[in-house]
Amino acid sequence: MSDARISFTVNGEAVSVEAHPMARVLDVLRQQLHLTGTKEGCGEGECGACAVLVDGELVNTCLTPILQLEGTALTTIEGVADGARLHAVQEAFIAHGGAQCGICTPGMILAAVSLQQRHPAATDDEIKAGLAGNLCRCTGYMKIFDAVRHALAQAAPPSEMRSRMSAANEPRERSGDHGAPASERAGEFEGRSPSKHEGPAR
Ligand code: FES
Ligand code: FES
């Protein structure tokens, strides 16, 4: 199969790349577009380090062929801040010590931004479920959880805060990302074994 030209937007800018249709989005972002904020962890769709938003949906770029991006709108970690002003989730990660080596951080932040957009009044369990597809081997997860919880609380209007507090006291069904049942992933978030990625941040 020969190379193809694929056009899409990245962080609001139109781009057009020539690549093998099955080339990984992760490689095109890092090697052709020099957007190295997107990290490779496991390379197998399990850790979420390579996650970006595609038309607002969280997608693992290590498993996504570039052909699927035709006509889409991507947001990478480079597009989360508003110029020099960090996103509230980024500010919260700094304030709560939610990043250490940094490998998981771009994917975690994009997962949190996605959660904030879909569920601005997410309960604690919904936050855990929303982040359960992203692995971190450094922080022990609680600092990340605290950061996301803080960012959502800052953004939620008072009425949503009230419903969040009452919802937190009720048993409920959860839905989430990345395919696995939310009930399993929410449990994994606090007690997850180390991820497969071994390399340093690149
Ligand atoms: S590098 Fe893509 S999910 Fe781990
Ligand atoms: S900070 Fe999460 S893997 Fe290092």
Describe this structure in words.
- The chain has a 5-stranded mixed β-sheet with strand order 2-1-5-3-4, with helices on both faces.
- Mean pLDDT is 84; it is low at 164-188 and 190-202.
- It has helices at residues 25-32, 88-96, 105-118, 124-131, 142-155, 158-167, 182-191, and strands at residues 4-10, 13-19, 51-54, 57-60, 73-75.
- The chain starts with a strand and ends in an 11-residue tail after the last helix.
- A hairpin with a 2-residue loop joins strand 1 and strand 2 (13-19).
- The longest helix is centred in the middle third of the chain and has 14 residues, at 105-118.
- It is of the alpha+beta class.
- It is globular and about 50 Å long.
Secondary structure layout:
Elements: E1 4-10, E2 13-19, H1 25-32, E3 51-54, E4 57-60, E5 73-75, H2 88-96, H3 105-118, H4 124-131, H5 142-155, H6 158-167, H7 182-191
Parallel strand pairs: 1-5
Antiparallel strand pairs: 1-2, 3-4, 3-5
The structure holds FE2/S2 (inorganic) cluster (2 copies).
